[in-house]
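Hello forum,

I keep getting stuck at the same step: I have a sequence, I want structure tokens, and every attempt I make locally crashes halfway through. Rather than fight my setup again tonight, could one of you with a working pipeline run this one for me? It's a single chain of 125 residues.
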Amino acid sequence: MIAQVFGAAFGLLAVVFGAFGAHALKRRFTDEQLQSFETGVKYQMYHAIVLIVVGQLCEETATFYQAFTVLFIVGTFLFSFSIYGLCLSAAFGNKLRFLGPVTPLGGLLLVGGWMLLLYQFVMAL
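Reply #2:
Ran it on my machine without issues. Output:
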């Protein structure tokens, strides 16, 4: 259930942030910032969908489910939200540089979640 809750919340926020970026921030962002912001939104939505689907198909008590859920929730938060923070802070004149190393850490957690998902599928063959 926790995967579906976070998946739905991430999906909702991805739509809100995507619209916000495309309309409210379009004039404020450079092309590079807009592209980075959109990358954060896309990755957030991809992982929202995966959390909902796999969360629906798996037993909540399974170790796989718990590990997968944590990796994708924390990874999505670190990856996408650090991109949002970097873009917004740069657009408003005070770039939060400490967020730079957070993005790849989030990406690494997402890769770990995908590796775990692949492992689970291969073991089910």
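The mean pLDDT is 93. If your local run keeps crashing, start a new thread with the error log.
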